Amino acid sequence: MGQKIHPLGLRLGITQEHDSKWITRETFTRWRWLMQDKAIRDFLNTNYKEALLEKIIIRRDQTALDKKSLDPINIVRVWIYAENPQALLKFGKSHSLKVISEKLRLVCTNTKLIDSWAKTPEYKILPRIYQIDSSAHKASGIARNLIEKLENRTPFRRALKRTISELQTRERKGVRIQLSGRLNGADIARVEWYKQGRVPLQTLRAQIDYVSKAAKTTHGMLGVKVWTFTGEKGSAF
């Protein structure tokens, strides 16, 4: 049976870049930083849904020394790309950035991410917020739109047709949507998918955008996967 590989991970270094940009030789540090990156993204996506986050890039590029204790301080740069950044800046730009920085610092120093025998390192979080254009034509925006319809008890076939009809065909060459679970409350879970245009998943130079999310309905969780194709890298067509 064929196995499905993550379309973004397959294209790293070709059409995709890493969302976490850092390097370390220590195994324990690598494990801790990976867990911290996941915790940071989960915290932001859970607590700032109204900001319509598109991408979160985390970079660790230097270590400073505390002026008093001379202990090393890990500097973590968090670049947040949001369609509605006003939801992140409720208390003014400077104060809101300080609040977000402190919350993310507490996430990084969570005891679950650090062994009891290890000394808790100090972290300095430097967040930046960037506003992006509407993501309605991107995979995340398509999935968000479809999930909203499904959670409002719209039949899945009607929700699929409405979502596809609302897309702007100029900005993409193909889209594929897959739903899985107890569709329309059926006793047996199944998988349904819809495809429009070309989505060449086996072409490495193809610029594929992909997202996987879950919709919480009255009949249980539904899996939502969206692939979009916008062209090929290095191609003029």
TrEMBL record:
Statement: the UniProt record of this protein carries the keyword Flavoprotein: no
MF terms (GO), sorted A to Z: RNA binding; structural constituent of ribosome
GO cellular component: chloroplast; cytosolic small ribosomal subunit
Domain of life according to the entry: Eukaryota
Listed InterPro entries: KH_dom-like_a/b, KH_sf_prok-type, Ribosomal_S3_C_sf, Ribosomal_uS3, Ribosomal_uS3_bac-typ, Ribosomal_uS3_C, Ribosomal_uS3_CS
Boundaries of every Small ribosomal subunit protein uS3 C-terminal domain copy: 148-227
A Gene Ontology BP annotation from the UniProt entry: translation
Assigned keywords, A-Z: Chloroplast, Plastid, Ribonucleoprotein, Ribosomal protein
Tagged with keyword Ligase: no
Subcellular location field: Plastid, Chloroplast
PANTHER family: 30S/40S RIBOSOMAL PROTEIN S3, SMALL RIBOSOMAL SUBUNIT PROTEIN US3C
Xref: HAMAP family: Ribosomal_uS3_B
Subunit record text: Part of the 30S ribosomal subunit.
Family as reported in the entry's similarity comment: Belongs to the universal ribosomal protein uS3 family.
Protein name (record): Small ribosomal subunit protein uS3c
Organism whose genome encodes this protein: Blidingia minima
